[in-house]
Write a structure and sequence with these properties.
The protein has 150 residues and is mostly helical. Helix content is 69%, strand content 0%.
Length: 150
Amino acid sequence: MTTPPPPGPEPRPRIEHTAGPSAATGWRRAAGIGYVVVAALFIVSVFVQFFLAGLGVFGAESFEAHKDFAGVFHLFALLLVILALLVRRNRVDVTLVVALFVLTTIQFSLPEADDGYVAALHVLNALIIYTVAFHVLQRAIRTMRAAPAV
């Protein structure tokens, strides 16, 4: 014999959430994993760019490899923007990846500047790019860990 529920308002029905980490299923979850992977590849590409620049500076190679790899580097930045929008990242994350794309785009023009001081900003901008990319990856990993397993 069961007892009837106590009088009062009925409990609210469960609402299925359609945004955020708990709702990441199917293609959105795959895109979220892709976002983390591309963010990690971007960080690795920063180190590769520093190595290739070092080869050019110290005469082991020319700067051609450094210049050629910049296209791949820029593609990763664009992919991060697209994936951030697809997986509906929050405003801070979207701002960070857009800033990363803009900084990476600016990076192309700095070594071509006529003024040596402006051209020297190429190295400083690379460090800023690394710092922003590190925060993008750190935030992406934190979000991925917070999401429940599906």
